[in-house]
């Protein structure tokens, strides 16, 4: 026999994740941080287990989002927050403010490896994000992009990764597609801390 509650209860799509911050020694670059985190989670960033991004205020501190809480600190960590469980609601029509640091561009294969020629104009980034919004499971309400460059030294070699920082407001259009992007990230070069979508109510 059905109760009134059984007919009125709504199944709200959601994603359960764990978020934490870890601080490494000052000279730890994004690739070293990625290697240490990969050792903990068993897969590279963007392969469905975790994503990470650099803290804009504290050098060598990285924010990490994972599907499971880590069972140990990454090697070389000086401090780390206890992973906090977060539930992201993904019901169609829900609105969020967002920030996304992402490397998007034209992809090609050279020497058997995928190469990305990052977009060099804000208009290209804006067009890419708007044209792919439906595939990402979102509907853009407000969108503003700016170009940036990530610079660091890894094992004596200097790296420069052009990317964009996109901010604005979005509406959930497809829960499953957006869930997949929240887990796997956006764009290229996720192993240097790009591609993690930050949402806030």
Helix proportion = 10-25%
Taking all Cα atoms into account, the compactness measure Rg is: 18 Å
Q: Give helix and strand order, one letter per element, not per position.
A: HEHEEEEEEEHEEHE
C-alpha geometry: globular
Q: Which class best fits the helix and strand makeup?
A: alpha+beta
The span between the termini is 38 Å
Q: Percent of residues in beta strands?
A: 35-45%
Q: Give the low-confidence spans.
A: 1-8
The tally of beta strands, per DSSP, is 11
Number of helices: 4
What labels would you give this structure?
four-stranded antiparallel β-sheet; five-stranded antiparallel β-sheet; about 200 residues; alpha+beta; about 20% helix
Please provide a written account of the structure.
The protein is α+β, with helices and mostly antiparallel strands and 201 residues long. Helix content is 21%, strand content 44%. It has four helices and eleven strands. It has helices spanning 4-8, 30-41, 122-136, 175-184; strands spanning 14-24, 50-54, 61-66, 77-80, 84-89, 95-102, 105-110, 113-118, 138-154, 157-172, 197-200. The strands form three sheets. Strands 1, 2, 3, 4 and 5 form a five-stranded antiparallel beta sheet that branches. β7 and β8 form a beta hairpin. It is globular, with a radius of gyration of 18 Å. It starts with a helix and ends with a strand. The model is unreliable at 1-8 (pLDDT under 50).
